[in-house]
From TrEMBL:
Protein name, entry field: 15731_t:CDS:1
Organism field: Funneliformis mosseae (Endomycorrhizal fungus)
Length: 61
């Protein structure tokens, strides 16, 4: 899974793999962290924060 994450520019932070359904911790190249199963990641899902269109931080004035 580490090789797969590296191809995406990210990291697999998990130290233990149990099965495809068990959630592992991931980190994208922007530093966002989340948990997802290997099954979901292999289907092509990656960082939700980076993939949300129009998602921006609003700084109040």
């Amino acid at each position: 899974m580490r090789k797969f994450a590296k191809k995406k520019g990210g990291l697999c932070l998990a130290t233990e793999y149990i099965n495809r359904q068990d959630p592992l911790e991931w980190q994208c190249k922007e530093g966002h962290k989340w948990k997802a199963s290997v099954k979901v990641i292999l289907k092509g899902t990656w960082c939700r924060t980076c993939n949300t269109p129009g998602r921006k931080r609003v700084i109040p004035s």
